[in-house]
User: Fold this.
Amino acid sequence: MKITDREVTKHELKEIYDDFKTIEKQYGVPQIEQERYNITAEEQGAVIGMASGLTNHKWFYLSDLWVHEDYRGQGIGAKLLRMLEDKIKTIGIEHIYTWTTGYNSNEIFYEKQGYRQCFQFEDFFEVKDGHHICLLKDLA
Assistant:
């Protein structure tokens, strides 16, 4: 055996991921493909907000929620989030989760939308209150 410090090729990575799928099948895990869902806010043809994420079985990972700074504080983020939640519920998603930061109090926004903290990495970022916070919400 030889252990080295090198990148795996795309072909090798595909073989590894195929093996993960084989293991999942052995345990009866349904095979699914992740799908990305997006909701976008526009003003005069320019994107001013976006909510986006990926499906994973009955869970949804909210990877991005963004509103242009000129439009923040107007309820656009909450509306984007609500529209995305409504959309993913129609395909059978039961739970949604995301990660946010503590240094700008983003967790308060999510808590107002019905999310609850499930985990927090203390001092993840090198700033005051630089926590990395996981929040989730049951949709079912």
Summary: The mean pLDDT is 95.
